[in-house]
């Protein structure tokens, strides 16, 4: 049985370890101090979104972050699945599907009307899951510029 618990000060070290592993998959830079600071900001400001640890039988198996945005096109508050990670030894057990179901049930309670996500082009398993769960390619390109 899966459970989803909001991240607390006590679970931040576990999140940081998983982040390090997650970022290594695609060679993203990982800065422990910066990520720790950002975790503090995020969990202390619920208006930014929600961050949950995913547990199976009280064992932490992953985490998922839903970060809020606002869109006129999508009817108000929308959100990005900013980070979604399942530890390697727990993959292909349906945890991703259950987590997506959880997010879809939880989002309306949080005032979220639409959920967006990014997936790496090479991540075939991720794309398969997201398409199966009803996510679609809008045909648009997500463009990004770092400004700070």
Task: Give structural notes.
This protein is of the alpha+beta class and 148 residues long. It has a single domain, classed as Aminopeptidase, CATH 3.40.630.30. It contains 4 helices and 5 strands, in the order βααβββαβα. It has helices at 12-25, 32-43, 95-109, 124-132; strands at residues 2-6, 49-56, 59-71, 76-86, 114-117. It has a 5-stranded mixed beta sheet with strand order 1-2-3-4-5, sandwiched between helices. α1 (12-25) packs across α2. The protein is globular and about 40 Å long. The model has no long low-confidence stretch (mean pLDDT 95).
End-to-end C-alpha gap: 41 Å
Please outline the major beta sheet. Answer: 5 strands, mixed
Give the class from helix and strand content and strand pairing: alpha+beta
Strand proportion, as a percent range, falls in 25-35%
CATH class, named Alpha Beta
The fold-level CATH name is Aminopeptidase
Neighbour order of strands in the largest sheet: 1-2-3-4-5
CATH architecture descriptor name: 3-Layer(aba) Sandwich
* Continuous helix count: 4
Give the SSE map.
Layout: E1 2-6, H1 12-25, H2 32-43, E2 49-56, E3 59-71, E4 76-86, H3 95-109, E5 114-117, H4 124-132
Parallel strand pairs: 4-5
Antiparallel strand pairs: 1-2, 2-3, 3-4
Helix pairs in contact: 1-2
């Amino acid at each position: 049985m899966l459970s989803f618990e909001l991240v607390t000060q006590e679970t931040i070290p576990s999140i940081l370890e998983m982040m390090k592993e997650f970022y290594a998959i695609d060679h993203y830079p990982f800065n422990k101090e910066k990520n720790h600071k950002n975790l503090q900001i995020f969990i202390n400001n619920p208006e930014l979104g929600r961050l949950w640890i995913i547990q199976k039988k009280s064992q932490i198996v992953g985490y998922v972050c839903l970060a809020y945005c606002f869109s006129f096109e999508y009817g108000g508050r929308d959100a990005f699945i900013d980070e979604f990670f399942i530890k390697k030894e727990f993959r292909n057990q349906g945890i991703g599907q259950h987590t997506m179901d959880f997010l879809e049930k939880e989002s309306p309670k949080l005032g979220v009307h639409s959920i967006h996500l990014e997936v790496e082009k090479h991540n075939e398993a991720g794309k398969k899951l997201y398409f199966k769960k009803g996510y679609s390619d809008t045909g648009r390109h997500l463009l990004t510029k770092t400004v700070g």
